[in-house]
Amino acid sequence: MVNYDEAINFLYTQLPMFQRMGANAYKPGLDTSIALDKAFGNPHLRFPSIHIAGTNGKGSTAHTLAAILQSAGYRVGLYTSPHLVDFRERIRVNGEMISHNAVINFVNRYQSLNLDCKPSFFELTMTMAFEHFANEKVDIAVIETGLGGRLDSTNIITPILSIITNISFDHTAFLGDTLAAIASEKAGIIKRNIPVVVGEASGDVKQTFLDKSTEMNSPIKFADENKAFSSAELTPDGYLYHNTPFGNITGELTGECQQKNTATILSAIEQLRLIGWEITPDAVKQGFANVCKLTGLAGRWMELQQSPRVVCDTGHNVGGWEYLSRQLSQIKGKLHMVIGFVNDKDISHILDMMPRNATYYFTRADIPRALPANEVKTIAEEKGLSGKAYSTVAEAYNNALTNATSDDTIFIGGSTFVVADLLSHLKQ
Predict the structure, then answer these.
(1) What is the pLDDT of residues 118-147, one digit of tens each?
(2) What is the pLDDT of residues 381-391, one digit of tens each?
(3) Prediction pTM value
(4) Domain-by-domain residue ranges, the chain?
(5) Which CATH class is domain 302-427?
(6) Which fold has domain 4-295?
(7) Does the pLDDT value for residue 361 go beyond 50?
(8) Three-state secondary structure of the chain
């Protein structure tokens, strides 16, 4: 029998998770997921699900859909990754994290089975989530892929709706070095006769999705072709979306990328209504307006304080930084950037998008996969960005706080794990 800390440590050491270790932890294929799921009684068959893939926007889309379904009166499971502060953030029912005891019980039962297969951290966590959702008798679960789609361990499910948010360059060593190749991997979640919503696509990427949906006889809708709102206006309460099918709605999430996510979410809601799910305009409005409270979402253009203004965001690839760079360019006053990356990203293109007139605090997250702060500094200086290197996120952030005046803005990001370290530091 293990306690909670032992259970978590055990999970972390089962074929180390990709998020911490990178390429050495990547283990594609569904055979182990299927065997593990079967050993626990195929819990994924005991509830309907929505499956979400894509390069950017998966987390915001998943959390907002869960918030809307929850507001419609459904009991909703939500499976996402990675977590920021607490492992249990990955597995929620109606916003409540899985209990410590449920994690302990799952690990103890797994260890007692002595299975021939050797599942990874992600495969174990996924099975834990599916069993938790079944035990909690959820009405529906929103399931986010971890990496890719076709060979992602979550792809054992047959959902009632598939969603692919967008395609950008990320994890090219595993998914392919062209957008069409990456799209083909993401399109692997499209199931026969199951409708699919694609957030945005063009050219070869769009054709890849069209070909796959035709092969699978799956109705497909591209959210960017018939955007479900006429305009978006930034207000003190968030983005106000005009003339949606559900009236004017206010979205709590304010990163510029949320406009694309909103179009995807609204298209998904319309598809769910078409296949019989009862979702009122009021539920849509409540879900959009209260997504963080209802689901625990954090780290998406998240404002932590004013005077100085402190913002963090988990955007960590070129697609995400296309939006973040525009948003940062609109900030008035001096900008302090606390930045770190993982070591398997091509950060050159991301650094090209960074504001040139900011003061930089280069750092590294406390994971093996993090790029050393001095290396970030060296690469950044070649791009004309200047600043100092700090060994921890807390040290970098505290120095930024010391140097910033009340009118300045401090931004923390570059990696999900930099944001995670910051939130853990602030929680202490």
Answers:
(1) 898 999 999 999 999 999 999 999 999 987
(2) 999 999 999 99
(3) 0.91
(4) 4-295, 302-427
(5) alpha beta
(6) UDP-N-acetylmuramoyl-L-alanine:D-glutamate ligase (3.40.1190)
(7) yes
(8) CCCHHHHHHHHHCCCCCHHHHHHHHCCCCCHHHHHHHHHCCCHHHHCCEEEEECCCCHHHHHHHHHHHHHHCCCCEEEECCCCCCCHHHHEEECCEECCHHHHHHHHHHHHHHCCCCCCCHHHHHHHHHHHHHHHCCCCEEEEECCCCCCCCHHHHCCCCEEEECCCCCCCHHHHCCCHHHHHHHHHHHCCCCCCEEECCCCHHHHHHHHHHHHHCCCCEEECCCCCCCCEEEEECCEEEEEEEECEEEEECCCCCCHHHHHHHHHHHHHHHHHCCCCCCHHHHHHHHHCHHHHHCCCCCCEEEECCCEEEECCCCCHHHHHHHHHHHHCCCCCEEEEECCECCCCCHHHHHCCCCCCEEEECCCCCCCECCHHHHHHHHHHCCCCEEECCCHHHHHHHHHHHCCCCCEEEEECCHHHHHHHHHHHHC
Which pLDDT score, from 0 to 100, does residue 170 have?
55
